[in-house]
Specification:
104 residues, alpha+beta, OB fold (Dihydrolipoamide Acetyltransferase, E2P), 5-stranded mixed beta barrel, 35% strand
């Protein structure tokens, strides 16, 4: 019975590993709507004021248009395969899970 419990835990951890391995990203800056880009992914972008990094944003759970032009803090995770952009010279793509207005 103990071996079965260990096996179940090992399988659960193996299945959860890709989710646990996703790097979280928090960025604060002005939310911009993207027009046509050479890398053709994401709908919005934010330039993180602290690090200087520019992130391309997408989200299935947050209406990013509602925050366009506002200074916000974005909570997200790097999308696997897009950490350094899908195409050479592209930007990191993050999946946004939460957005908060940031104080000025």
């Amino acid at each position: 019975m103990k071996r079965l419990a260990v096996l179940v835990v090992a399988i659960a951890l193996a299945l959860a590993a890709p989710v646990l391995a996703q790097e979280s990203v928090t960025a604060t800056g002005a939310m911009e709507r993207l027009d046509i880009t050479s890398y053709q992914y994401g709908t919005h972008a934010v330039h993180d004021e602290a690090s200087g990094a520019l992130y391309v944003l997408s989200s299935d759970v947050v209406d990013l248009d509602a925050y366009t032009g506002q200074r916000v803090t974005v909570y997200s995770t790097l999308v696997p395969g897009y950490e350094y952009g899908q195409v050479e010279g592209g930007l990191p793509l993050v999946d946004v899970t939460w957005v908060e207005p940031a104080p000025l």
